[in-house]
Amino acid sequence: MRSQPVDASARGVRRHRRGRRAAPLLGPECPVSTLILPLLAILGGVTAIAGLSLFVYKLFRHRRERFDEFRRASYIGALSEMATRSGYPLEMLRRWSPDGVFLETLLEFLKFLQGGERQNLLRLARELGIVERFVTELQTSKRRNRRVDAVEALAEFADPASSDALLEALRDPVDEVRWQAAGALAKIGDPRAVRPLLEMLQREADWGANRVADTLVAFGSTAVPDLARYALLSDPSLASRTAHLPLVARVLGIIGDVRAEPAMLSALESDDAELRIRAAASLGTVGSLTCVPALIRALRDSEWEVRAQAAAALGRQMDGRAIVPLQRAMRDQNWWVRQNSAQALSEIPGGVDALVETLEDEDRFARDAAIERLMAMGTVRKAVEAAKGGSAGEQDRYVVRQLVVLGKGEFLYDKEANEKVAG
Fold it and tell me: Which end of the chain is less crowded, N or C, counting CB atoms within 10 A of the terminal residue's CB?
């Protein structure tokens, strides 16, 4: 058989492929092999050094932590003894006071002590100059964390000698420093801090403003004159000054000092719905009988939250003038207003009779609110048990009969009793 002619280019391709397969993958002349080996050696050396460094670091840290724990245990024992007596070996304590572990231990110890033992350790801190050291750190350090640590320590010591530095810290650019300084001043109870805190309240965003408000609560009655004046004299046209007035009203309500009543009565007439809500709620704790007419008018406010808070506040005042307005409020379109009105009637002398009368009200929602409140008070159960036992009075029989008429006979527990009291 004659062989077929072979194209020269095809023969060239085959020779090229055979040559490529025959070439060694690695060899002394290959440049890749000359690079890999040194790189592997370098990588192995770096790994070994890193591993050794990590081992040495962990060993050093472990030994240091053990040493710190040993010192901490020694300090705890010494502080326990010092807290129970007024005399201290000051020379030894002066050697300890620069130690950060000693300061940490002292601060932790103070959190669990009260009375004379705490005062002993506070006196010790003053004698060692520890309070002054933290004051200096707060005033001079440029590092944020150090100022935060210093103000936290001063809050724990609550030493009146640090008040001036803490008042300055209320203008610190770091939020946490300002808030911790405010808390420290509240613990000290320095009344000079209230006005700067009100100025700070105007500058803070919502979350920060709430923290400042919580701090003002901690001042208690000391803060009431400045807070009430702030609420009364705030210009409604200045949004920056009135934005947080509802918070001020809330603070006054929590403190519960009657001196805040005029300010809250004024706030109840505000155009700001949120402020009216807070004022109505606060009058439940700061109000006297003088505020009852204003709260009765607030039962007709356009905002249901105001009406609901006014109803609750009237219950706390326990004034009989509110009975009829609260009965009307039980027909309110809002569930909370109805519930708070029924609750208020249950707290006012003579209000229970009004609740019983409401069982015949033409408004179905008012009747339901009255039944729920009478059930919660135990009046319904008492009436049912009295009816079953044959000792029911006129009001008991009326309550049970109305339950049946209104389709609430399931509270009578059985058919026989149902028929007995209904017939």
Answer: N
